[in-house]
């Protein structure tokens, strides 16, 4: 899905030069599109307010924290990609008042991962991550 969104080409050196927060900036947008598309698909007849509430549950810091932990635990991401998560996690320091600092930092790492993969045009990996997280969202988020 993300492939059709790509307008500009980034060189590997450009991607590596970006801050982790810049990766998170684009990753947040890409993840939100996946979450919205998923919610719209499973809730076709819901009103927009309900769609928004359901999507918010998938894009909030706690959910992204849970998702990134599950990605690591289930070996969906390798050590290279985990380093991108840690880089993003370590760049974040101003958590919102309604979020746990550790969760917020890992959520930033999750968004950095998605942004990194998007700019590297690793769309199949984003699709794999999205399928894993969204297919299991109810289970993952209700266990925590």
TrEMBL record:
GO MF terms held by the record: ribonuclease III activity; rRNA binding
One of the GO biological process terms: rRNA processing
Active-site residues from the entry: 28
RNase III domain segment(s): 22-121
Domain of life: Bacteria
Subcellular location: Cytoplasm
EC number: 3.1.26.-
GO CC term, one of those recorded: cytoplasm
Function, in words: Involved in correct processing of both the 5' and 3' ends of 23S rRNA precursor. Processes 30S rRNA precursor transcript even in absence of ribonuclease 3 (Rnc); Rnc processes 30S rRNA into smaller rRNA precursors.
Family listed: Belongs to the MrnC RNase family.
UniProt subunit comment: Homodimer.
Name by which UniProt lists this protein: Mini-ribonuclease 3
Organism: Criibacterium bergeronii
């Amino acid at each position: 899905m993300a492939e059709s969104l790509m307008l500009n080409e980034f060189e590997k050196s450009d991607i590596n030069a970006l801050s982790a927060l810049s990766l998170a900036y684009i990753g947040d947008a890409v993840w939100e599109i996946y979450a919205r598309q998923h919610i719209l698909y499973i809730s076709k007849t819901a009103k927009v307010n309900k769609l928004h509430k359901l999507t918010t549950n998938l894009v909030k810091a706690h959910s992204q924290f849970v998702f990134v932990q599950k990605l690591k635990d289930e070996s969906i991401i390798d050590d290279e990609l985990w380093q991108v998560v840690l880089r993003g996690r370590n760049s974040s320091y101003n958590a919102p008042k309604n979020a746990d600092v550790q969760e917020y930092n890992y959520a930033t790492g999750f968004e950095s991962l998605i942004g990194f993969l998007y700019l590297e045009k690793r769309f199949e990996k984003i699709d794999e991550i999205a399928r894993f997280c969204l297919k299991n969202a109810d289970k993952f988020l209700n266990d925590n």
